[in-house]
Each structure stands twice: as structure tokens, then as C-alpha cells.
Amino acid sequence: MDNSLPPADELVLVDRELARLDARRSQLLTRRAWLVRALYAPAAPAAPGPRPPVADSTPRSAQNVLLTLGGTLLTIAAIAFTLVSWGSMGIGGRAAVLFLVTSAALAAPVALLRRGLVSTAESVAALGLVLMVLDAYALHRVALPGADGLGYTAVAAAVLAGGWTAYGSALSRLRIPLPAAVVAGQLPLPLGVLAAGGGPTAFAWAALATAAADGAVILWTRPAPVRITAAVGAAALGGWALLTGGWLSLVSPWSGAPLLLAAAAIALYTAWRTPAAAVAGAVVAGLAVVTAAGGLLRSAVSSDWTVPVYVLCGLAVASVWLTGRREAPPEARGRRALPDGVRLGLACAGAGAAALGVVWALPPVAAGLLGPMARTTGVWSGEHAGRPLASFPGTAALVLAVAAAVLAAVPRLWARCGALALAWALLTALPVALGLPYAATLALQLLTTAAALAGAVRPGPLTRGLRRPETAPEAGAAGAGRPEDAPDDPAAAPGTPWAAWAPSRPRPRASGAEAGTTLGRIAYALGLGSAVSAVALSLDVRGATFATLGVLLVLLGGAAAFGTGARRVVAACAAVLTATGLVVASAAAGGFEDHWTALALLGVTAATASVGAKARPVALPVEITGAVVALPAFALAAPRPAFLALTLALGGVVAAATAVRPERRRFASWTAAVLFLLAAWVRLAAWEVTTPEAYTLPVTVPALVVGFLRRRRDPEASSWTAYGPGLAATLLPSLVAAWTDPEWPRPLALGLAALAVTLLGARFRLQALLVLGGSVLALDGLHELAPYVVQAVGALPRWLPPALAGLLLLAVGATYEQRLRDARRLRDRVARMR
Q1: How many angstroms separate the CA atoms of 692 and 76, rounded?
Q2: Strand partners, 471
Q3: Does the structure show a pLDDT above 70 at 833?
Q4: What is the pLDDT of residue 815?
Q5: Dist. CA 138–CA 143, nearest whole Å
Q6: What is the CA radius of gyration of the chain?
């Protein structure tokens, strides 16, 4: 089979097309099933009679609104009584009123629940809970006015939490008391610590203990409102404890580490026992462990090693993922120490900490890549040659190296892509982190470029060790086994085959060719970035510029010769640009003037045209790049018109030579004609020729010849397409010049030419010639007769022009129908012309 694609790339295309066909087949089968159901479905039952109007609200919702409003009003009344009317009663009266009202409010829901009035019981119970808070406030104001406010509040909150828990447990149909007890339970420990004069550390420990109690409520209670309330409290207080622990790990690591480790233990236990929150709890636990361990180790090292210490701790936590690798035997998978969700959360936490360390190590990479481009002096001035690019700690390179090594050990495509990018970042950051001299920095950048381009051309070594299964087995296939990366199904009974519950659509997996293509593209992009940075750095020294451009030309030429697909095309275009840089550098080193440099650049364009005739796969991109190179050549020659004309003419010669090839004939021929025409115009302008016909006739004559040949091949072609552009190119500029020319030869010659064009249009029934020639002839004649008309009108009596105009209007009006028919007939005749 003859195919221009390499086998690896063709295999990628075949795999993608098969996956697309499978997906389309599944869609069509689903649509067919729906159409069958719609076609053979039983007839819909007759529409029922008119329905009664729907009420704005149901009785239950209206009842709830009324009860809520009633309970709110009673609560407001109780608060007003306690705060306003309390002083007008004695101690006994106050106690009796509060005791009776509170007792009645707490006892009433018992009778209401027996009668099934749940909503009423909820409202009355809520009133009773509020009254208990007011009782506690009143007790402090009357019986214990000297008690500490925070301490009393802590004790009262504990008593209320216990009472509400007992009350809610006794009346389990009520939904308010137990969540209210959980809310009250958040206060005793933190407020007790504040009352005892504890500092931030003690308060954080109290918050953590309360969060642990909330976790116990989440694990060992069943009502959803209680668990939700406890989860909110645990998140708030546990988050405060973690933030305090993180702050302490920075200022006093040995004080913050126990707090963070305790929080990590609680979060990990909760994640272990709660599958729904396993990943989130494990992430919190992992971050707490990394922060605690990193804080302890940081105190023993210098400041430059702070981030590497945290990165190592993060990688150590992420290594927990390896405890449940899929390569383990089936009998060992069920006995893993950690659930999948916990392992995933810990791995994410460790990887996140390591990723933050990699972000910290990126500034040296940016300085090594973009530093040479920050130029304040001229080319070959040695601005960067005498000093390092920047100064960063050398541990940044260590972080990049460790992260790259860890990712390279993971046999996955995404990990290999990250390892490749980090390895390139390490090589780019080394000169900055180690303060290497100019020559070593430039050599390392060129070596990085060479390695990246080699990996792009031959990505096989980069894919070594990757897992490359082609596709997962289809669902329902006989004997289909469970894929190695399938998640555990807790709902599946033991022995349930994978095919019984697997997704119905096969999942395509990346093949070896696809992995190589992906890695090759990444390596290619990184190599081009290093190449641009190396060129910018080499501009400091003349010899380094030539050496760098020469090496890059060889590397890019090799990549274009041995590469495939789009990478080959990009390499070829980059090689053309590199050759252009060599030409410009040679001209600058030789002291050539700009116009001679322009002629040298045209040599690059001519070379790309000759190469394009032989290198078929990259011919068009290379030729386009060469044509783009010609644009700065024209710009350099513009200050000297004579050289600009020569440059344009040489460009036309190159385009005409390219037009010899059949596949380039159409575009190249037009390009050559335009360049030759521009060259002629520039030469005429250099000779100070101002006659417009000298510029327009070289356009008109070839255009009319081309139009005549086209009409011979295609008689149905419009005359406007064949002759309109060519005639307009000369007639219209000449008409403008004739209206401003005081002499008679130009208007006379233009009139004769327009008359000839008009007669030819009438003879051969060509609309373009008739309209253009007649219009130009009429305007030219009007220009010549205008002075005499003005003189004649000035000699006539002033009443005569209006009279003649009136007579003309009367004549036209009298014969309006005939004139209208004549105009329509003339329009139809002109429209029938081509």
C-alpha cells in the first residue's frame, strides 16, 4: 500500500477513526431504539376534562407559614417580656413566670405529637428552646450577677446542649432540638479556654477537640440535619485549628506540629470511616502532615532549603499511593491498608505540596529563558557576556530535578509529559541557579535544544516503560475481563463479572504511537523555546552569533530531514529563518549597506524556491517562509528607489521561475506579474515620470490580452470580468488627469480612445466596453464643451434658460410613456450584452 504517512502516524489515525465510528454507531442505535418506541407506543389516553383551578398554596404550606409566624411572634413577646417587663416584678414572680411558661412550652409538644400536630409541636418546641436561653440569661442577671460572662456562657451552653439533646432524644419526631444541641455544643470548650485566659494555642486545641466531637456526631448519628450541622461546625472549628497550626509551624514549629498531627489524625479517621468524604478528609490530613513535618525540618536547615524540605515531605506523603498499586495480585488488593479514596486524597495533598514547590522553582527557568531577551544595549555589545543572567538559590534546580525524577518513575503518559517539561526546565534554570559563565550558559542552551529536537524526531526512548493498552474490553463481551484500572464496585456482589456492570461504550486508550506523538510535540515546542533563547543570548558576541546560528541550522535541518508531520514542517520553516539570520549577521559583520543586505536576503528566497521544487512534503511552507523573508528585503531597499526596483524585479524573476512548476503556476505567475509591474512603477518614479499612462498602460495591455484569451476559452464569461479591470486601469486615471489638464492633446487622445472602445462595444455587443467607453467619452466631451456652454449661457438673456428647461420638461412629459418604453428597451439591450 502506497501511503505518504509513516506507519506510526497512520496507526494513530486508524485508531482514532475506529473510535469515532464506534461512538457514532452507539448514537445511531440509541436513536433507533427511541424511534421504535415512539412508532409502536400505545395511543395516549383521552385528555381528561377540565381540571379545577389549583390553589395558590396547599393547606400544609399555609399551615407552616402560619405556625412559623405565630412562633416568631411568641418569641419576640418573650424576649420583650424578659428585657422590658422584668424589673416590675419581684424575684418570686419572675421565677414563677419563667418556670411556668418554659415548662408549658416544653411540655406542650408531647400532647401535640400524640394528636399528629407535628408542625405545631415544632413551633412550640422552638419557643421552648428560646425560653431556655432567656432563662439562662435571666439567671445570670439576677442570681449570678458577679459571675464571669465567658465562663457562665460556656457552662450555660454545655447545660443547654445536654438538655436539648435529652429533650430531642425523648421526642425524636421533633427536628429542631438535636441540631440546636449541636450548635450549643460548639461553645463550651472554646469559651471555657478564653475564660481561663488561654492563648491562641489553647483555643486552637479546644476548637480541635470540639471538631473531633462533631466528627463523632457525624459518624455515629443518623438524622441528616444533625450530621449536616455537625459537619458545618467541624469545618469551621477544624479549619480554625488548622490555620492556627500552620501559623504556629512558621513561628514555633514544635508547638504547631502536635496540633497539626492531631488534626491530621482526626481528619484521616473521619475520611476512613466516611467514604463520601474520604478524598476531602485525606487531602486535609495530608496537607496537615506536610505542614507539620516540613515545619520541624525547616527549623534545622538554612532558609534556602525551606521549600525543598516541604517538597520532600509532600513526595513522602504522595508515596502512600504506591501502597495499593494495581500490579498487586488480586488476593492482595482486597487487603489494602488504606481505602482508595484515602490513598487518592493523600496523594493529591502530597502532589499539591510538591507542585507548589515546583512553582517556587520556576523563576530561574523564566530568567534563563527570557533573560537574554531583556536587552538594553545594541547587538554584539557583550551585555550578558560579562555577568550571570540572574541570581537564584541553587536549591531551585534541586526541586526541579527531584520532581522530574519522581514523575519519570510513574509509567503514565501524563507523568512522562510532566517529567519531560521539568527536565527541560531544569536544564534552562541551571545557568541561573549555579551562576554559570556566558560560554557555559550558551553551550548548555544549545545542548538542551539538541536534546529536545532529538526527542521530538525520535520519541521512542521517551515512551519506554509506558503502559500502552490499546482499548478497554467492550461491555458485555463474552469472557471480557476487568480492566486493571477499573475502580472497586462496593455494590457488586462477589463474583459479579466486570461485563455485567461496566459502561456500555468501549473506552479508547492511548497507543504507543499516540504517546510518542504527544511527547514529540512537547519536546519540539520546548526545543524551539530553547533555540530562541540561545539566539537572543548569542547576540552579545559576534562569534557566538555565527556559531549559534550555524549549530541551530544543522539541528533544524536534521529535524526537517528526519522528522514527520507538522514537526517536520515547523523545523523546515525554522531552518529558513535561521539561514536568514545568518545572512543578516554576515551582512552586518561585513559592513554592508541596507540595500546590499536586501539583495542578499533575496538569495534566501531564491534558495527556498529551489529547495521547494525538490522537498515535496515541506515545499509549500518553505516557499511561503522564503516569500515572507522577501518583505524585509523590499523594506531595506525602499530608501533607494533604483535598488528597490532591482529588488522587485529580482523577486519577480524568482516568482516567474517558480511558476514553471505546474502546481505553483497560477499563484506564482500572478505574483511575478505584480512584482514586475511594481518594479516598473518604481523605476518610472525614480526617473520622475508623471504621465499616468506610463504607469497604467503596462497593466492594461497584458490585462486585455488575458481577457481576450479567457473569452476565447469561455465565451460565456462576462465582459466585465475579461475587459473591465484592464480598461478601467487606464481610462479612469486618464480621465482624472484630463479634467485637470489645461492642454488639448490628452483630452483629445482620451476621447478618441474612448470612442474606439465604445464602437467596439457596440459592434461586438460587449457591455463593459460600451458602458466604460461611453461614460468616459461623455465626461471627456463635457469637460471640453463646458467652457463654451458657460460662455453661451452667459450671452443669452436670463429668462431663456428657464424657458428652455420648461419646454424640455413639457416635451418629456407629453411623450413620457414613449420615453419610458425607450429607456426600458435600452436597458434591456444593454443588459443582454455580456
Answers
A1: 97
A2: 508
A3: no
A4: 60
A5: 8
A6: 45
Cβ-contact 465, 411 below 8 angstroms: yes
Residue 509 · residue 470 · CB < 8 Å: yes
Q: Is the dihedral of CA 448, 450, 455, 461 positive or negative?
A: negative
Distance, in Å, from the CA atom of 817 to the CA atom of 339, rounded to the nearest integer, reads: 98
Largest CA distance in the chain: 129
Closest CA to 406 of 394, 392, 422, 393: 422
Q: Name every residue whose Cβ is closer than 8 Å to that of residue 736 and which is 6 or more positions away in sequence.
A: 692
**Taking Cα atoms as reference points, which of 702, 278, 2, 33 lies closest to residue 10?**
2
Provide mean pLDDT across the span 65-90: 53
Model confidence pLDDT, tens digit, residues 533-566: 999 999 989 999 999 999 999 999 998 888 887 8
Q: What is the pLDDT of residue 514?
A: 82
**Which cell numbers hold the place of 789?**
456652454
How far apart CA 668 and CA 659 sit, in angstroms, is 5
> What does the chain come to in residues?
834
Grid cell in block for residue 458: 525520535
**The one-letter amino acid at 614:** K
Distance CA 629, CA 618 (A): 17
| pLDDT classification of 222: cutoffs 50, 70, 90 | confident
- Do 419 and 355 touch, CB atoms closer than 8 A? no
Instruction: Tell me the per-residue pLDDT of 119-175, one tens digit each, with 9 for 90 and over.
Output: 778 878 887 888 888 788 877 877 777 788 888 999 999 999 999 999 888 888 888
Rounded CA separation 558/169 (Å)? 81
